[in-house]
Amino acid sequence: MRPIRLPEPPIGRRSAAEVFEAGIYGIIKRVVVIGNGFSGAENQCIGLVRALGLSGCLTLYRVTRPRGGINKWLHWLPVSLHKKLDYVIRQICIYSGVQVEARWGKVVLFAVEKTGLSSVIEADAKQIAMMARDTFEKEGPLLVIASGRDTISVASSIKRLATENVFLVQIQHPRSRLNRFDLVITPQHDYYPLTPHGQRQIPWFLRRWITPRRPPARHVVLTVGALHPADSAALRSAASVWHDELAPLARPLLVVNIGGPTSSCQYGADLAKQLIAMLQNVLWSCGSIRISFSRRTPEKVSKILLKEFSSNPKVYIWDGEGPNPHMGHLAWADAFVITADSVSMLSEACTTGKPVYVIGAERCTWKLADFQKSLRERGAVRPFTGKEDISESWSYTPLNDTAGAASQVMKALAARGWPIDA
Fold first, then answer.
1. Topology of 31-69+77-93+118-224+404-416 in CATH?
2. Segment 249-272, tens digit of pLDDT
3. pLDDT of 124-154, one tens digit each?
4. pTM of the complete model
5. Where in the sequence is the signal peptide annotated (predicted)?
6. Taking Cα atoms as reference points, which of 214, 84, 82, 99 lies closest to residue 150?
7. How many whole angstroms separate alpha carbon 282 and alpha carbon 255?
8. If DSSP states are collapsed to H, E and C, what string results for the chain?
9. Which of 168, 265, 288, 345 could form a disulfide with 159 if both were Cys (CB 3.0 to 4.6 A apart)?
10. Domain spanning 232-383, CATH architecture
11. Computed from CA positions of residues 153, 155, 158, 164, in that sequence, does the dihedral angle turn out positive or negative?
């Protein structure tokens, strides 16, 4: 797009109303993403930015919590209070020379330098809001996209401090005061606690704290699963990048993605042993199998699978070294087996339209069980039983949540008079 030379305002800065009416500054050309340091949340923002065509205009900030030691027990605190408490603890530990970590009722000593914040660009609401205001006439409005509980306070503060200069999209349900956001994008299972069955699972005195306060409003966009950057262009690129390694593999190629237990989907070595037995039963119908672990996969689970399959010529297990083959697997796989705990991995795989088998869905509770139900009802997933013929394919309408959410963002921006600079 050719740069436009803007006229100088006659006296001082134009008011937001005058700028909006004139329409010459109302083009979205830049995005700020507020992340929390976890790929599951940040990839949703990045996927939405890609779908909006603004990948080259992205700046990433993070809201970081103190990590290590006793901090893992304090994640329920508001970020600001957690940081203050961490500072006090570290000062005490610097004075004493050691730190303590509560683990299984014991006191464990470890070095001071294992705690503290990661060295990333810390999100400062006042600074970002000031930037949005000061550069509004030259750069236009600022699109802010945030995801995750820890980002809510910072993102909503940016909107409050620069209301006329910012369009705020919050991914994942903020639970209350939705009027702080221009648009909320959240999976439909976030509203499971409002269903009669969900209400029966919550003690009455906890309901106001862990459930959405009202049904979806007009500015709430509901998705089936998580947003992600694995769009068709990304998969075509990954297919090219991973061609030499994955194209020669014997077909059909079964990709097995293993996440990690969560409070709503608990498992351990028992699931690993169950998975081994099932994979051995379908091995005859596979040309090759590729297994990947996530950062959340317990060591006891990965060790069991490594011991069983490391010498099998049909099976390759990515050990975490070298480039992550995840995107290549999405592009080249003929079918998937995925543990039920990961909304992100299931959402990505169900975007491909290829067969997706789920293991461990019967262990899911709460909102995760509702998510599994919605995928089954769409015909996007089937339970993995170990009796499958992997060479047999089946189809369904692929999930299209990211593109659908991007369309809703564009529509909301257009209603504001702020089209995206395409």
1. Rossmann fold (3.40.50)
2. 999 999 999 999 999 999 999 999
3. 999 999 999 999 999 999 999 999 999 999 9
4. 0.85
5. none
6. 82
7. 13
8. CCCCCCCCCCCCCCCHHHHHHHCCCCCECCEEEEECCCHHHHHHHHHHHHHCCCHHHEEEEECCCCECHHHHHCCCCCHHHHHHHHHHHHHHHHHHCCEEEEECCEEEEECHHHCECCCCCECCHHHHHHHHHHCHHHHCCEEEEEECHHHHHHHHHHHHHCCCCEEEEEECCCCCCHHHCCEEEEEHHHHHHHCHHHHHCCCHHHHHHHCCCCCCCCCEEEECCCCCCCCHHHHHHHHHHCHHHHCCCCCCEEEEEECCCECCECCCHHHHHHHHHHHHHHHHHCCEEEEEECCCCCHHHHHHHHHHHCCCCCEEECCCCCCCCHHHHHHHCCEEEEECCCHHHHHHHHHCCCCEEEECHHHECHHHHHHHHHHHHCCCCEECCCCCCCCCCCCCCCCCHHHHHHHHHHHHHHHHCCCECC
9. 168
10. 3-Layer(aba) Sandwich (3.40)
11. negative
Task: Give the type of residue at 417.
Answer: G
